[in-house]
């Protein structure tokens, strides 16, 4: 029987259409609900993390339904022990120490906020490339700076967590996975910026015959980014397998479109648009690879196995 201290997903299962933006749900803090049950030692631990507040969902550039966080905070303080909280369970393994749980919750929120920005950058790249939207192309570098800033902050937070909390076994696996995931997300942000730059340079040229296939490939990559972030918010180990299948399809798209482009005639006597589109599909292929990496890391966190 599952412990009453088990973590619960704060939402019901439903279909998630591609392109829904993430929102980092503001999980209720355990500080107030557990204040009366803490020992003096646990109060010190709470003070150590009171300087950084969790990211507010309003800060996330979200539209439509969002992906709620798999809540890492304790839902009940009725457990045994001097502090009233001995452990909580997430994805089948136990987390101990309230301060560790609070820090992990904060990091997860930051990662999901970063993921929302990355997914939004993918949407802007699509608008810039397929709809020739100059304003969207100009927004991507601005948003990429926010992504880079979050990336650096999350690395600092994870390093601090490792130093002060000294997590072990599954807890350590979760922290290390967060550090690797944000690198993947940061690289996706860089590739969307590259697509935006290529889109601006393609504006003077007529729309190429391959653009429709490139648009389809881009939409597949966007769906993969959305799926990898959903897997992170729900800690779903099966998403990694689905992402691998989707990545194989994107790889096939890349091979087919690349072959068409190298055989294409110059546009208005220039090979520049051909080269730019090759760079675009290369960026898309790498976005799919990094999204697949995130899914694999989630699987590793939950199961302890690399697939």
Main sheet record: 2 strands, antiparallel
What do we call the CATH topology of the domain at 98-303? Methane Monooxygenase Hydroxylase, Chain G, domain 1
Identify the CATH architecture of the domain at 98-303.
Up-down Bundle
Global Rg: 22 Å
Describe it for me?
There is one protein chain. This protein has 307 residues and is mainly alpha-helical. It has a domain at 98-303: Phosphate transport system protein phou homolog 2, domain 2 (Methane Monooxygenase Hydroxylase, Chain G, domain 1, Up-down Bundle), CATH 1.20.58.220. The chain is built from eight helices and two strands. A two-stranded antiparallel ribbon has the order 1-2. Helix 3 runs antiparallel to helix 6 (211-234) and helix 7 (239-263) packs antiparallel against helix 8. The radius of gyration is 22 Å and the shape is elongated. The two termini are 29 Å apart. The model is unreliable at 1-65 and 71-95 (pLDDT under 50).
In short:
This protein has 307 residues and is mostly helical. Helices cover 63% and strands 3% of the residues. The chain contains 8 helices and 2 strands.
Layout of strands and helices, then pairs:
Blueprint (H helix, E strand, L loop, with lengths): L29 H4 L6 H9 L38 E4 L2 E4 L1 H33 L3 H32 L3 H34 L8 H24 L4 H25 L8 H32 L4
Antiparallel strand pairs: 1-2
Q: Any descriptors?
A:
single chain; 307 residues; mainly alpha; Methane Monooxygenase Hydroxylase, Chain G, domain 1; two-stranded antiparallel sheet; 8 helices; disordered N terminus
């Amino acid at each position: 029987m599952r412990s009453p201290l088990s973590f619960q997903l704060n939402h019901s299962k439903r279909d998630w259409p591609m392109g829904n933006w993430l929102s980092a749900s503001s999980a209720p803090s355990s500080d107030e609900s557990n204040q009366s049950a803490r020992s003096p030692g646990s109060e010190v631990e709470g003070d150590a993390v009171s300087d950084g507040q969790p990211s507010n969902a309003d800060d996330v550039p979200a539209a439509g339904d969002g992906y709620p966080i798999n809540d890492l905070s304790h839902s009940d303080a009725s457990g045994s022990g001097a502090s009233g909280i001995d452990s909580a369970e997430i994805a089948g393994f136990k987390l101990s120490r309230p301060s560790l749980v609070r820090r992990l919750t904060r990091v997860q929120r930051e990662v999901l906020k970063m993921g929302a920005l990355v997914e939004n950058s993918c949407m802007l790249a699509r608008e810039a490339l397929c709809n020739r939207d100059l304003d969207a192309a100009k927004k991507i570098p601005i948003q990429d700076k926010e992504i880079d800033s979050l990336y650096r902050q999350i690395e600092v937070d994870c390093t601090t967590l490792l130093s002060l909390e000294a997590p072990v076994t599954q807890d350590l696996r979760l922290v290390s996975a967060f550090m690797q995931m944000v690198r993947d997300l940061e690289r996706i942000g860089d590739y969307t910026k590259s697509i935006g730059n290529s889109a601006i340079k393609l504006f003077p040229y007529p729309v190429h015959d391959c653009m429709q296939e490139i648009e389809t490939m881009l939409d597949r990559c966007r769906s993969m980014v959305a799926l990898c972030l959903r897997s992170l918010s729900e800690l779903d180990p099966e998403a990694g397998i689905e992402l691998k299948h989707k990545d194989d399809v994107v790889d096939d798209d890349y091979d087919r479109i690349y072959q068409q482009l190298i055989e294409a005639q110059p546009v208005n006597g220039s090979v520049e648009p051909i080269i730019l589109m090759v760079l675009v599909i290369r960026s898309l292929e790498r976005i799919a690879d990094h999204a697949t990496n995130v899914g694999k890391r989630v699987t590793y966190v939950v199961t302890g196995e690399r697939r």
